[in-house]
Design brief:
heterodimer, A: about 500 residues, Formate dehydrogenase/DMSO reductase fold, about 65% helix, B: about 40% helix
Chain lengths: ~500, ~230
């Protein structure tokens, strides 16, 4: 049947036409480079350490940092106001007793999952492209979990009783309810934060040691010349010196580092799945229609990875433009890979959205179908029984299900601007997903006499803006002062690090 | 790199870890012991107005029943403080031999009575607002003696708080009522109750505890709404 004669040489079917910045090679015989421009090991160290050492950072970054810090400050004031006054400053009512607070909690905790997935699961699967994003995604995880932890802590109202969430022996002889997923949440989130922080910190140790050594070398040079030592270098030498815990780049250190990295990756892997499953139990184990569904755990996990990758792209696509030479390390192929993940996970949440309707119909539960149809999907201008929150539902569908569909076209998955816009839309859509789940289910429950709309107060809004400010401030500080790539891992994936690499490969 | 940190800093991580661990243990132990009603509230003995009221003398030596003064205790949640008229029943002028009761000592009662004023006795046993409706009558009818919560009042010249009144302490009895129940008609016989409960702890009870527990109209409640409502 075959038209090709066995003796006939095969023609190249993949045309080496559009390779973008050089990383988009589709020829299976060619290994696509993960670091471009033939950067040497020394150059990579210079580039990455240079970001943290640059005495004159980009003005636009400083402006952004100022803005973020302002938002964070406003958020801090709002939290103070809430603690002094009580949760009544939010728009909560007896009917809608969870609204923006828990929406924000689930939103932020979900964002963190991309970092864990990249650092743990992609590490175990030996996905080498993760090296371009793992450090910043892990940082993002930690900052997102900080923002996430904030909301449940302040939504209890009397924050001085927050210790009651921990099972501590006390003279009231009361314990948290171990059968409540809200308690599992406490353990899930605090474990998640601890493991993520350890993972991130351990990865940082060799790179902080590099910064320490570079600062120390400059200090020694200054002393030899008889100059005054530069204060930033003094701070760097001692702070990174303390944090890098005596790292001396010895083979034994690297060996133990690799082992510890694998162990932490192994510990983190189940966390990718467990944390957001447990968050979803907060809803799924209650008997509120719209929450009481068994699809929630996988649906939440897929949504978390979806929203997390959107946030990674949302932050790193502009960073690529602002930081010199970053495009050599974070190539179009990296962006394309993450765009593909957005497409896949976006369709997973789309499947979950449609499955909710199917199960509501298939189970014959009229309350559940009512929630999905009349609290969410049917616009109020179409039917008297329609949902006043139709716009929230359809924003979610547009942003999460429809907008990533453009990534079927290669042209869009390799276009940073298109990726950034979709990432922004997905971030918005994922916030709305949590809002839809929480508020539309609560605002019209079993007793029509208790149906109420939820109206956010300025404090609600500014607290959320504040959490975005906290997140962005922390992230920008990280981008300014710490190595934003894992330098050693980066070097390991350069073309010249490959065992079949020859310097004269271009000649072949 | 040599020269950045002196050699002694190698000991810092160990020393820091030990300090942190020690601090943690000290904090936990300190909070566990000191931050409790058992530490802060047991022994609370506010100064009472006038020359006070000697429970050891009145209830102990003279044998006046608790209910002579705390009249509503069997039918009211509140263990009422007697009004001045109750005191005046004995301490009106020329009622008792001044050999036993010095006029000066009880003058504050007569003054209050003459002015139609109350004596501002100070509350010794304070519960938080949300459990202020503590039902004394229910507990008495179930057979919980005054002694179980207030201690040996008959031996107290001045009343002080004998028990912690913490929620954990309440629950201890609600979970194991057999350690405290006595026949309801004997709840105010504090010296007998003290002896009985001590005997019971060493396994020599003179009452049928099982019958007492069985006679309870309900299980002692342990859910939040039983007390906090």
């Amino acid at each position: 049947m075959s038209a090709i004669h066995p003796d006939q040489p095969l023609e190249r079917v993949v045309a080496p036409d559009d390779v973008g910045d050089g990383s988009l090679v589709e020829d299976p015989a060619v290994r696509p480079p993960l670091v471009l421009n033939n950067r040497s090991f020394g150059e990579l160290t210079e580039i990455v350490c240079g970001y943290a050492e640059n005495p004159y950072p980009d003005k636009r970054l400083l402006l952004l940092l100022g803005l973020a810090a302002l938002c964070a400050g406003v958020g801090g004031l709002m939290i103070l106001y809430l603690i002094i006054t009580g949760v009544g400053v939010w728009g909560l009512t007896n009917q809608v007793d969870w609204a923006w607070d828990i929406t924000n909690f689930v939103f932020w905790i979900g964002i963190g999952h991309a970092g864990t997935l990249i650092s743990a699961i992609l590490c175990l699967f030996k996905q080498k492209w993760r090296t371009a994003v793992n450090r910043s995604a892990e940082a993002m995880t930690i900052f997102a979990v900080i923002c996430a932890g904030l909301f449940p802590a302040i939504h209890v109202g009397r924050i001085w009783f927050i210790w009651m969430v921990f099972p501590l022996p006390n003279s009231n002889a009361i314990w948290p309810n171990f059968r409540s997923p809200l308690l599992w949440d406490v353990f899930a989130v605090s474990t998640y934060f601890t493991v993520s922080l350890l993972f991130w910190y351990m990865g940082l140790i060799p790179d902080m040691a590099s910064l320490r050594d570079r600062a120390h070398r400059r200090l020694l040079g200054a002393r030899r010349r008889g100059d005054k030592p530069a204060l930033p270098d003094l701070i760097r030498a001692y702070v990174f010196g303390a944090l890098s815990a005596g790292w001396r780049f010895s083979s034994r250190h690297w060996h133990r580092y690799e082992v510890a990295y694998l162990i932490l990756a192994g510990i983190s892997t189940p966390l990718v799945l467990s944390v957001h499953s447990i968050v979803s139990f907060d809803f799924a184990t209650s008997v509120t229609p719209g929450w009481h569904t068994t699809i929630f755990p996988p649906y939440f996990v897929a949504g978390a990875i979806f929203g997390g990758f959107a946030m990674v792209l949302f932050l790193l696509v502009p960073a690529r433009e602002l930081y010199p030479n970053m495009k050599d390390i974070l190539t179009l192929r990296h962006l394309e890979n993450m765009a593909k993940i957005l497409l896949v996970t976006g369709m997973m949440v789309g499947f979950a959205y449609s499955m909710e309707f199917f199960i509501a119909w298939y189970s014959g539960n009229e309350y559940e179908s009512w929630v999905f149809a009349h609290n969410r999907a049917i616009p109020i201008w179409l039917s008297e029984d329609g949902a006043p929150y139709w716009w929230a539902y359809w924003t979610m569908i547009f942003c999460n299900v429809l907008s990533p569909q453009i990534f079927w076209k290669r042209k869009f998955r390799t276009n940073p601007l298109a990726i950034w816009i979709v990432a922004l839309l997905v971030t918005i859509g994922m916030w709305f997903e949590r809002f839809v789940i929480i508020v539309t289910s609560l605002h019209r429950a079993f007793i029509p006499g208790e149906w109420h709309m939820f109206y956010p107060t300025p404090v609600d809004i500014l607290t959320f803006v504040g959490s975005c400010g906290i997140f962005l401030t922390l992230f920008l500080l990280f981008m300014r002062f710490l190595p934003i790539f894992a330098i050693a891992e980066l070097k390991a994936v350069t073309p010249q690090a490959h065992r079949h690499h020859h310097d004269d490969e271009e000649a072949h | 790199m040599a020269g950045l940190f002196p050699k002694w800093t190698n000991a810092l991580p160990t020393v820091t870890a030990m300090l942190v661990l020690g601090g943690l243990v000290t904090t936990v132990a300190g909070v566990w012991y000191y931050f409790t009603p058992k530490f802060w509230e047991v022994g609370y003995m506010p100064a009472q107005p006038g020359s006070g009221f000697n429970h050891q003398l009145h209830a102990g030596k003279l044998g006046i029943d608790c209910r002579y003064c705390h009249t509503k205790i069997e039918e009211s949640p509140e263990a009422n403080i007697p009004n001045v008229a109750t005191c005046m029943g004995c301490h009106a002028e020329n009622r008792l031999d001044t050999k036993f009761v010095k006029d000066a000592k009880v003058q504050f009662i007569r003054d209050a009575y003459a002015k139609n004023a109350s004596i501002e006795w100070r509350r010794v046993h304070k519960l938080p607002d949300y459990v202020r409706n503590f039902p004394h009558h229910v507990h008495l009818k179930a057979g919980v003696s005054c002694y179980s919560c207030h201690g040996q009042i008959m031996g107290m010249p001045e009343v002080y708080q004998a028990q912690s009144l913490s929620m954990g302490w309440c629950l201890e009895c609600h979970r194991n009522p057999e350690q405290h129940l006595v026949p309801p008609e004997d709840v105010t016989k504090l010296t007998w109750v003290e002896q009985e409960l001590k005997d019971r702890a060493s396994g020599r009870s003179s009452v049928d505890v099982e019958a007492l527990v069985a006679s309870l109209r309900r299980e002692p409640p342990q859910y939040c709404g039983a007390c906090h409502h």
